[in-house]
From TrEMBL:
Protein name stated in the entry: Protein tyrosine phosphatase receptor type D
PROSITE patterns the record matches: IG_LIKE
Residues in Ig-like domain copies: 24-114, 126-162
Keywords recorded for this protein, A-Z: Immunoglobulin domain, Signal
Superkingdom of origin: Eukaryota
Signal peptide from the UniProt entry: 1-20
InterPro entries per UniProt: Ig-like_dom, Ig-like_dom_sf, Ig-like_fold, Ig_I-set, Ig_sub, Ig_sub2
Species the sequence originates in: Phocoena sinus
SMART domains: IG (SM00409), IGc2 (SM00408)
Length: 202
């Protein structure tokens, strides 16, 4: 009897563990941003869970719905980017909410967007002095995209490809972010990137 019961118990334990479901958990949350009217803002939100959580963006408690609001999902389904362009003041100034849910639970996180008029831009606000240029290169060749920004304090530069953030840590060494720019090797025939420089008011 003992020899028969033990494998049955092990099988049942494995079966229960394999079917275990987990509630959503954020792996990346959006941060407050200050933008300029006519500019762009991108909020990033990612979550994990089993089953994979569904992510929805809300503005003032309602799902975002506007031609200027675009939600771009990550290829692996781990989250999405809320992109707003062009920014309008004061209509876009609000608290935005990322909601991640599955059949086990639901979580949410909020972020604030502030939009300034041109005459409200404070001294030290970041400016892109040199933006990346569209390049066409041969396959297997290395492409270098350059970006220069200034501000006080020094602005943080984030690279996006097809409106999704570039992950320099999970690309088999093909993409490297350098002090002088970002390298892609080997590259595709054409690469189109845009750069977002963020500023947080204290």
């Amino acid at each position: 009897m003992v020899h028969v019961a033990r494998p049955l118990l092990l099988f049942l334990a494995f079966f229960l563990h394999a079917d275990a479901e987990t509630p959503p958990r954020f792996t990346r949350t959006p941060v407050d941003q200050t933008g300029v009217s006519g500019g762009v803002a991108s909020f990033i939100c990612q979550a994990t869970g089993d089953p994979r959580p569904k992510i929805v963006w809300n503005k003032k408690g309602k799902k975002v719905s506007n031609q200027r609001f675009e939600v771009i999902e990550f290829d692996d389904g781990s989250g999405s980017v809320l992109r707003i362009q062009p920014l309008r003041t004061p209509r876009d100034e609000a608290i935005y909410e990322c909601v991640a849910s599955n059949n086990v639970g639901e979580i949410s996180v909020s972020t604030r967007l502030t939009v300034l008029r041109e005459d409200q831009i404070p001294r030290g606000f970041p400016t892109i002095d040199m933006g990346p240029q569209l390049k066409v290169v041969e396959r297997t060749r290395t492409a270098t995209m350059l970006c220069a920004a200034s501000g006080n304090p020094d602005p943080e530069i984030t690279w996006f490809k097809d409106f999704l953030p570039v992950d320099t840590s999970n690309n088999n060494g093909r993409i490297k972010q350098l002090r002088s720019g970002i390298d892609f090797s080997p590259s595709s025939l054409s690469l189109l990137f845009n750069v977002l420089s963020t500023f947080v008011m204290s």
